[in-house]
Amino acid sequence: MASQSNSIHSLTEKLEAFLKSPHSYFDSSDDAARHRLSEVARKVSFITEARGDTVHRVAHSSLQLPLARIGIETGVFELLSENDGSTATNAELAGKTKVDPVLMKRLLRYYQSMGMISQLADDEYGPNNVTTALASVGGKSGVSYYFEMVNQTFIALPQFLRQTDYVNPTDPSNCPWQLGHHTKQSPFAWLQSHPEMMEFFLPWMANQRDGLPTVFDIVDFQQELGQKTNDSTILFVDVGGAMGHQCVALKQKCPKLAGRVILQEQAPAIEQVKANPLPGFEGIEAQVHDFFTPQPVKGARAYYLRNILHDFPNQKCIEILQNLRAGMTEESVVLIDEMVLPECGAPWRATQLDMSMITCLAATERSEVEWRALIDEAGFKIVKIWTYTQQLRDSVIVTIPK
Fold this sequence. Notes:
Elements: H1 2-20, H2 31-47, H3 51-59, H4 64-74, H5 76-81, H6 90-97, H7 101-113, E1 118-121, E2 124-126, H8 129-135, H9 137-163, H10 176-181, H11 187-193, H12 198-207, H13 215-218, H14 221-225, E3 234-239, H15 245-253, E4 260-265, H16 267-275, E5 285-288, E6 302-306, H17 314-325, E7 333-341, H18 348-361, E8 366-367, H19 368-377, E9 380-387, E10 394-401
Helix pairs in contact: 4-9, 6-7, 8-9, 9-12, 9-18
């Protein structure tokens, strides 16, 4: 027992030394090593947690989202992140944010305990990697999106499942979204009637995978799509592509790729794209299109669906895919950019998003077995699957008509 105790003390001392100077132990640019370490540390935290700590952590977990929203709204995270590594006092932060100093002290006390900021002394606060993440575009839009739009559906989930005898939700017109928002509208219809939410929704859709590898890091589009093309070739149609980030990324990754790149979205999104185009959007065509109607662009090399099908149950996905088929030629492929979950040990970020799909859309994140069955039923077959993130099992499923 003494030897075991000494080993634990030795391990703890090494971890404490690591926390004091983490960058001297590993290269932060080595994402695979960083991810492995993070997952091990997370599991160690769970298995060493006392029963009471577990209960309190879970019972109070719903505090993190609204408290993070407050930190974003007041500008605390942004102020600390922009401070060039300098620290700030409670009075300084309260003065700059116009928050009552007594309340500010309580907020800061919570933030440091949750690792959202660092506290170096009694009245000395500074940023860390979590602070800068929450102050980023992805952090601000993601927290705000989930707080304003999704949190109500999470809260409604237990009641909804009780009322429906714990049957897996498959009807997007009757799921926790409607119960939580007291509406009969779908999320997309609700979003159109609440255009102010686009301020959070569109940036979050564009930044939710910030820092992860992209499809353009794995797939050689020049090799796969760019053979024997010219400026009139319809190369890439991003169906339901929000602001067009993927179109821009393709052109930046393959600047010599000849052919037309087309973004398709609903009218409100296309209006925003035209009013405030992304840097690098020049030369990309923006077209209003509803993917529940036949595809108007004929003969594209690739029709690209990124995070579209996970929003819908199987029958709706089949409808979307069959609408694409009408525009395809022998040279066309459909690129389905979605998570492909393993049957064992699905990553936590992916399972959280799966629960979001249940609550908001009665939809699902699918395993490879489920994807193959769906694609086959839609009249397509899978040519290959490229997986490009481990955190989410993001993958590109290359499909063609059977």
